[in-house]
Amino acid sequence: MTLKNKRIVIVGGSSGIGLATAKAAYAKDASVVIMGRSLERLNQASAEIGDGVESRQINVEDEASVKAAFAEIEMFNHLFVSATVAATAPLTETTKDKFRPTLDSKIWGALHIAKHAASHLLEKGSITFISGLAGRKGYQGFALAGAANAGIEAVGRNLAVELAPIRVNTVCAGVIDTPMLDQVFGEKNYKSLSR
Ligand SMILES: NC(=O)c1ccc[n+]([C@@H]2O[C@H](COP(=O)([O-])OP(=O)(O)OC[C@H]3O[C@@H](n4cnc5c(N)ncnc54)[C@H](OP(=O)(O)O)[C@@H]3O)[C@@H](O)[C@H]2O)c1
């Protein structure tokens, strides 16, 4: 399969699953645009992926930032969204303030992006979100993270109806060794999560 002449935008493309997706698309000859908050991480990722990769700063929690990032972008074929601020905590430490960035990035972020990117998608275009196992199974400390992951699957299903014929899908990830996992779990053994 080749992705020659396809333009793919990856929001969250400077790290982890997004970066791996950007590299895979680039290796199949797609033209790749990566987005994230940190310019430094974007520059580092662009250099890692290869020549000609475009990057844009964006904060998906902030609708104005999303609107500005997509306003200045050329039409494209596919959109992959993996930008999330991850957090877990036991119930006793669960507060709105602690988890607001998780919901604002995963749920509101997805809605902001779909709202301002859909009109830039070419015919037969697609949007792919990413959820996680905590949305389907129970884990200690993941009540809110699970809600966000179950929520994004609902967002995807409903937007698939609203945005048709644009295809909207959500991929449920297992446990994938990325900087986010290190940040959430530190040195803790997270093998039990894969069950
Ligand atoms: N890794 C796993 O095992 C796993 C399992 C299940 C689901 N997932 C899901 O997969 C997705 C990607 O996870 P990952 O492990 O690849 O994480 P990651 O390595 O931390 O990458 C997250 C990416 O999103 C960007 N980002 C974060 N918050 C943002 C914001 N507010 N606005 C714009 N960009 C933002 C980050 O760049 P900046 O920080 O520079 O903005 C980075 O490029 C997440 O939705 C996560 O919930 C991961």
Q: Strand order, biggest sheet?
A: 3-2-1-4-5-6
Bound chemical compounds: NADP nicotinamide-adenine-dinucleotide phosphate
Apparent shape: globular
CATH architecture: 3-Layer(aba) Sandwich
Query: CA-to-CA gap between the ends?
Result: 32 Å
Structural class: alpha/beta
Q: Count the domains.
A: 1
Cα gyration radius (Å): 16 Å
Largest sheet: 6 strands, parallel
β-strand amount: 15-25%
User: What is the count of β-strands?
Assistant: 6
Query: Helicity range of the residues?
Result: 40-55%
Unreliable residue stretches: none
CATH class: Alpha Beta
Discrete helix count? 6
The CATH superfamily is identified as NAD(P)-binding Rossmann-like Domain
Instruction: Spell out the helices and strands N to C.
Output: EHEHEHEHEHEH
Structure description:
The structure is a single chain. The protein has 195 residues and is α/β, with parallel strands linked by helices. It has one domain (7-194): Rossmann fold (3-Layer(aba) Sandwich), CATH 3.40.50.720. The protein is 42% helix and 21% strand. The chain has helices at residues 16-27, 39-49, 63-71, 96-117, 143-163, 179-185, and strands at residues 7-11, 31-36, 54-57, 76-81, 121-132, 167-173. The protein has a six-stranded parallel beta sheet with strand order 3-2-1-4-5-6, sandwiched between helices. The longest helix is centred in the middle third of the chain and has 22 residues, at 96-117. The model has no long low-confidence stretch (mean pLDDT 95). It binds NADP nicotinamide-adenine-dinucleotide phosphate. NADP nicotinamide-adenine-dinucleotide phosphate binds next to helix 1, helix 4, strand 5 and helix 6. The site of NADP nicotinamide-adenine-dinucleotide phosphate (NAP) has 30 residues, from helix 1, helix 4, strand 5 and helix 6.
